[in-house]
């Protein structure tokens, strides 16, 4: 029965597994997540030997993982059974401190299901679904119907959003490569390619942009950091060989000067004049941390951005049609003019030109 609040499963805990430690110095997140899930499900516990066999790792690794759980505060129970065998399990929900949620908190979590779409099909998604199911089990049908009224008041668009429900195993393998710092081979078919190509990648992390996941990593054969759209990755294979990422690499800093996921090496100052018809719309959004917006006397808007590449912002500017004009740099202004002339020729001819190429982010 729910009174002031109720206990949700430990599988939904938001406490980081590596609190107080460096992620790079800890065992892989994927294995620890699976181990935690196993300890939660085994009401009678499991031995280190059994856990090592299930996780396909050494007993020493399991003991280190168990010590990590103790260190970060998970309620790990150690019980000595027959012949002195030790079994481990996670304490039941009722003994977990700080895991109580009020109705409004539980409802908020329940309504957040749609926001977890990028994790669809992964082990994290599965755990979240079990948690949502528990929320539903302790709330009456009438209350659930009432909750859905709130859901109807909030709609998340899904235009162009990718569906990763069939790529769960592939994403899990990528995550393991990231956490384990293992060289990863990916079979990838770029947007313009007719055949897939295999790359060896040092995976650094995943980025989520406009409904799609992108793998960020170093391509040693090109000696540069590249981005691969997960939708276009057909196969992933982990190697035993490890790599050492740059000590100063930070995923957020890597994208600091990107207008999305397209990353360049230099820096370009882009100035755009927006007509009064769209000025307010542009002012309402935070398009990039570097943006500077200046209101003009005629009601228009002058916008300035400092980016590493103009590729993605070019398409954004084009979306405003005649209400946006590029003032600088000159080469981007020329690119815009060429694009507009091509479009004009397309519509005047009434058919698709035989050769019309545009750059695309592979």
Verbal overview:
The protein is an alpha+beta fold and 362 residues long. It has 4 domains: 6-95, Winged helix-like DNA-binding domain superfamily/Winged helix DNA-binding domain (Arc Repressor Mutant, subunit A, Orthogonal Bundle), CATH 1.10.10; 102-152; 168-250, Roll (SH3 type barrels), CATH 2.30.30.520; 268-349, Alpha-Beta Plaits, CATH 3.30.70. It is 35% helix and 22% strand. The protein has helices at 29-41, 48-55, 59-72, 103-111, 123-137, 141-152, 168-180, 251-254, 276-284, 311-318, 330-349, and strands at residues 6-7, 76-80, 86-90, 100-101, 182-188, 197-209, 212-219, 224-229, 233-242, 268-274, 292-295, 301-307, 324-328. Strands 8-7-6-5-9 form a 5-stranded antiparallel β-sheet, covered by helices on one side. A 4-stranded antiparallel β-sheet has the order 11-12-10-13. Helix 2 (48-55) crosses helix 3 (59-72). The termini are far apart. 19% of the residues are buried. The model is unreliable at 1-27 and 356-361 (pLDDT under 50).
Low-confidence stretches: 1-27, 356-361
How far apart the termini lie comes to 53 Å
Per CATH, the class of the largest domain reads Mainly Alpha
What oligomeric arrangement do these chains adopt?
Answer: single chain
User: What helical percentage do the residues reach?
Assistant: 25-40%
Shape descriptor:
globular
**CA-atom Rg in angstroms:** 26 Å
Question: Which CATH architecture of the largest domain is right?
Answer: Orthogonal Bundle
Question: From N to C, what is the helix and strand string?
Answer: EHHHEEEHHHHEEEEEHEHEEHEH
How many β-strand runs? 13
- What fraction of the residues are assigned to beta strands by DSSP? 15-25%
CATH superfamily of the largest domain, by name, is Winged helix-like DNA-binding domain superfamily/Winged helix DNA-binding domain
Read across the widest sheet, the strand sequence of neighbours is 8-7-6-5-9
Query: How many distinct folded domains?
Result: 4
Instruction: Compute the number of helices.
Output: 11
